[in-house]
Structure formats: structure tokens, C-alpha cells
Write a structure and sequence with these properties.
Layout: H1 3-16, E1 23-29, H2 36-49, E2 54-57, H3 61-68, H4 79-104, E3 110-115, H5 127-136, H6 142-147, E4 151-154, H7 159-164, H8 181-193
Parallel strand pairs: 1-3, 1-4, 2-3
Length: 194
């Protein structure tokens, strides 16, 4: 790359940071089966009905888990789990950054709604595991994640759903969901505490 190309790229990046409308980033997070997808759809529909442009950013975990052949439960609370969550957080942050950058090219004000977002991994980690995951992605406090958002909503898991309707694994409505009902309840508790 020559000096002119580097200078041009820097000028374009600088100019791009000053164009476009305002972006309002909202996150819906929580443990598995908490109703995030339903809430996300309703929120999106209501905002669009009011004339607001909305961009959805999906969570990365489900498609990545499906592509890799599933998460191994034997990884829980081992270095493999921390590495798995590090990769998931990195992929999610990259996706969020890329879509936010593309949205900044637009001239309109826009609501960005994240399905789980970068907060997702916290619901499946102990405090020590999450600190390692976060730090390995150069995020040193949870507040750094919160500060990048206008609002974060946690959808609590309904106990009746967990006891009577929750499904996971092969043959379920979400075959990449590997959490047993007790693991889902634990993730829900961690998400609410976060």
C-alpha cells in the first residue's frame, strides 16, 4: 500500500465518521427460552409502524454452533469453554461493528436492535470465565459493553415455560440449543444479575 492509498483510506474513514444519521443501539438479552425472539419481533414491528428505520443484528452463537457440529457439554468450566466464548464474543463484536459502520453510511436516523449481542456469553460463564473472555477481546469492564448501547433489556425466563414447554437438542424447536432446563435457569439467573 502506498502513502497516497493510506492517506485516502484515512480521509474516507474520517469523513465517514461524520456523515449519516443518529444510531440508537438497543440490546435484548437473557437466557435461553426467555422470549427474546418474540419481544424482538414485536419491538421491531412497533418501531417500523411508527416510521422508524430499524436494523436487526442477530446473535452469532446459534449459526456458529450449528456449523461447528454443536457445543460439547464436557467443555463447561474448562479452558475450551473460555476459548469457545472468546471466539463467540469476537465474532459478535465484529458483526456489530461492521453493521454499525454500514448503517453510518445512511443518512437516516436508525434504531439498531441486537438479538442478545455481545452480552450473550456472560449468561453462560462464571464471573472468572467472563473476565477472561472479555479481557481477551480487549474489553476490560462490563461497563464498556453497556456504554456502547442506549438500552439493554433482559427477558426473564418464565418458570412455567421452563417446566412445561422448554425444549432442547435434536427434535426440538431449536436443535442447536444444548442447555438442559437447569442450565437454562442458571443462564437466566446470570443474565439478570449481569
Amino acid at each position: 500500500m502506498n502513502g497516497t492509498t493510506v492517506g485516502t483510506a484515512a480521509a474516507v474513514t474520517s469523513a465517514a465518521s461524520h456523515i449519516g444519521g443518529r444510531l440508537c443501539k438497543i440490546v435484548l438479552t437473557g437466557g435461553p427460552g426467555g422470549g427474546k425472539s418474540t419481544a424482538l419481533t414485536k419491538l421491531r414491528n412497533r418501531l417500523v409502524h411508527r416510521g422508524l428505520p430499524v436494523t436487526l443484528i442477530g446473535e452469532n452463537a446459534t449459526p456458529l454452533i450449528e456449523r461447528m457440529g454443536g457445543y460439547e457439554l464436557s467443555w463447561r468450566h474448562t479452558w475450551k469453554h473460555v476459548e469457545f466464548q472468546r471466539i463467540m464474543l469476537k465474532a459478535q463484536l465484529e458483526q456489530e461493528d461492521n453493521i454499525m459502520s454500514l448503517c453510518r453510511l445512511r443518512e437516516d436516523d436508525r434504531v439498531i436492535i441486537l438479538d442478545r449481542g455481545a452480552f450473550d456469553g456472560r449468561t453462560f460463564c462464571t464471573a472468572d470465565e467472563w473476565e477472561k473472555v472479555r479481557n481477551s477481546n480487549h474489553i476490560y469492564t462490563d461497563q464498556e459493553l453497556f456504554d456502547s448501547c442506549r438500552a439493554v433489556f433482559v427477558t426473564p425466563l418464565a418458570l412455567s415455560y421452563l417446566l412445561f414447554s422448554y425444549s432442547y437438542g435434536v427434535g426440538s424447536t431449536n436443535e442447536s440449543r444444548f442447555h438442559t432446563p437447569s442450565m437454562a435457569a442458571e443462564a437466566d439467573k446470570l443474565g439478570r444479575e449481569f
